Amino acid sequence: MRQLPILTAAVLALGIPALAHALEAPARADISTNTKVETKVDQKADGSYTEKRTDESTSKNASGTETRDTTKTTVEETAKGDVTKTVETHSAVDPKGLMNEKSTDSTYKEEVKDGKRTVRRVNKVDGKTTLDVKEEAEPTVGIKH
């Protein structure tokens, strides 16, 4: 919320030019945001396809902290109906200064092959694995994965 200045006797005495100067917007800090999205679909004659999508964004706030986020999504389906879905994310926050970046990486991979469903989740924080889970199950009848 923008605060209006209190009109002092000096401003009233100097008139409109002084009032205009008092109401000027403060200087803007160096703030930036960039976003990039790419999608590629490759369909083959046999009915199989591959779809790849990459989302990237970077931003920098007034205090100099840079944030970078990348998400890569891949979906592959064979003519037989086997499906592989992979989502890889990378997030990094780098406050102004040296050697103080914090990052988080995660991978989610789901495969349905010959009626068997496998899911694997891996999370890493600053390069150290915090989660590594693999689940296997038979798919539910009537639901296409």
Describe the protein in words.
It contains two helices and seven strands. The chain starts with 8 loop residues before the first helix and ends in an 8-residue tail after the last strand. Strands 1-2-3-4-5-6-7 form a seven-stranded antiparallel beta sheet, with no helix packed on it. It has one domain (28-137). The protein has helices at 9-14, 16-22, and strands at 32-43, 49-60, 66-77, 83-94, 102-113, 116-125, 128-137. The radius of gyration is 26 Å and the shape is flat. The protein is mainly beta and 145 residues long.
* Poorly predicted ranges: 9-14, 18-22
Mean pLDDT across all amino acids: 83
Q: What is the percentage of strand-forming residues?
A: over 45%
Given the structure, what is the number of helices?
2
Biggest sheet overview: 7 strands, antiparallel
For the largest sheet, list the strands in their spatial order: 1-2-3-4-5-6-7
Topology pattern, helix = H, strand = E = HHEEEEEEE
Which structural class best describes the helix and strand composition?
mainly beta
**Alpha carbon gyration radius:** 26 Å
Shape: flat
**Helical residue percent band:** under 10%
Q: Please identify the oligomeric state.
A: single chain
Total number of strands: 7
Number of domains: 1
What is the first-to-last residue Cα distance? 49 Å
